[in-house]
Amino acid sequence: MEPLNLLSTCKTGSKRAPGHYTGRKTMQLLTAFLMSLTLIILSSCGDSSKVRLSGKIDAGEGKVLYFDKLQVEGSRLLDSVLLKSNGNFSFSTTAAEPSFYRLRLTDNNFITLLAGPGEDITVNAGASNLPGTYTVEGSEGSELLKKLNDRLMVTRKQMEPLIDEIIALEDGPGYEEEEARINRELEEIIKDQRDFSIAFILENMESMAAITALYQVIDDQNYVLNRTRDIQFLKIVSEALVKKYPQSPHVRALASDAENQERRYELHRLSALAEQRGDVITTYPDIAMPGRDGDTIRLRLLPQKYKLVLFGSSLNPESVQLSHQLIPVYNAYKNKGFEIFQVSVERSREEWLRSIEFSELPWIHVAELGEGSFSAAQNYNVQQIPANYLINHEVGVVARNLSPAELRRRLSRALD
Question: How far apart are the C-alpha atoms of 134 and 305, rounded to whole Å?
Fold first, then answer.
């Protein structure tokens, strides 16, 4: 077959061949065609950065659905819509690379999405429980996030009755055996979740969904990946994503955290070697900070066998509440080898001193002030306040984030 030549004219003698155009007419047609093609191409290029999101929220009439972009420093509202009786919604934004977004009805009822440029995403869910009911199509990253979300929800549901059992346990014959049995079951559930997360990361290390897997938490205080050697997963995902998305703020933050974690691990490794040689004792991170009178107080020099390192802030209601709940426990065991070492994260020394005087908390107080790096909190891997760590002076950290009742039970067995 001869190639089609739009610029040729077909003539028979000196007359126009039936059904054909003159050269001028052909050029006009070609020009119009090329202009239309150019518009199509330009339109297509413009749409390639679009992220379109639509769907339906059942039983959402009268509720406001918010569309946020999740940034390293926090969330930014992009759009919102008042849902009508049919529950339909649609949003759009532009993106140069995959980014994290959130659909929410409230701060506790939301869906996280990982959307890339050019994706046309459909989300359907029930208003009463967005994360537990939603489906998503048209976005590979968002589907991966849903896979992570669904698996973690299963793990939490498996753990709930066991945690309730531990809370309901009472001191008496067989208490320790029963507690040990429940803890073994919990550890097995957590291990299964951990194995799932590691497999997910290794299969999807070039997807930004792996970032979510790295930082998933089982509860408010405990990461799924919480072992020292898990730094290796931070490193391999960071290296893979930096190559693929070097400008992404989320990837840059991951790379920075991987570097900091590796540096911290190396410091702990060197400390452990020094301990083996007998140079220093480093069974737990030391804290040395000025107390209320300005003199430096060192955690490691406190003589008590058991010490509770308590991280909190006078600006945080949960911290204040926990501190007051600990007073009876402290009074019961302060003369039996127990001390509380409270590290407060505060804006200024004046506010901190006023809060101590007002609260009348009878234990040791030090503070990390201003907007610094909060090294003590970092060394203990504090993710949220209040947080606490029970230390046996001879062993190291033996428990963390104990409730006052749990702390009392442990001290009763150890010191009574």
Answer: 50
Structure tokens, 135: 């489906």
Task: Indicate the pTM of the whole model.
Answer: 0.59
CA 163 to chain CA mean position, Å? 23
What dihedral angle (degrees, nearest 10) is formed by the CA atoms of 177, 180, 182, 184?
Answer: -140
CA distance 88 to 82: 10
Alpha carbons 256 and 166: distance in angstroms, whole number? 38
Secondary-structure class of domain 288-415 per CATH: alpha beta
- Residues 262-317: pLDDT tens digits? 776 665 555 555 445 544 444 678 898 888 888 899 998 998 999 999 999 888 88
Site of tokens 């659905």: 65
Q: What is the pLDDT of residues 177-194, one digit of tens each?
A: 888 888 899 999 999 999
Distance, CA of 413 to CA of 416 (rounded, Å): 6
Q: Can you tell me the distance from the alpha carbon of 206 to that of 237, in angstroms, rounded to the nearest whole number?
A: 7
400 forms beta bridges with 389
Q: Annotate 266-303 with b (16+ C-beta within 10 A) or e (fewer).
A: eeeeebeeeeeeeeeebbbbebebeeeeeeebebbeee
Q: Cβ(401)–Cβ(217) under 8 Å? A: no
Beta strands in 170-305 (DSSP E): 288-290, 296-298
Q: Where are the domains of the chain?
A: 11-46, 50-138, 146-277, 288-415
CA distance 242 to 254: 9
The phi and psi torsions of 188 (rounded to 5 degrees) equal -70, -40
As a whole number of angstroms, the distance between CA 83 and CA 63 comes to: 6
Residue 396 — left, alpha, or beta (φ > 0 → left; ψ -120 to 50 → alpha)? left
Please tell me the class of the 50-138 domain: mainly beta
Locate 299 and state its tokens.
Answer: 């955690």
Whether the CB-CB separation of 75 and 112 falls below 8 Å is answered with no
Residue 188, CA distances (Å) to 154, 175, 402 in order? 14, 20, 21
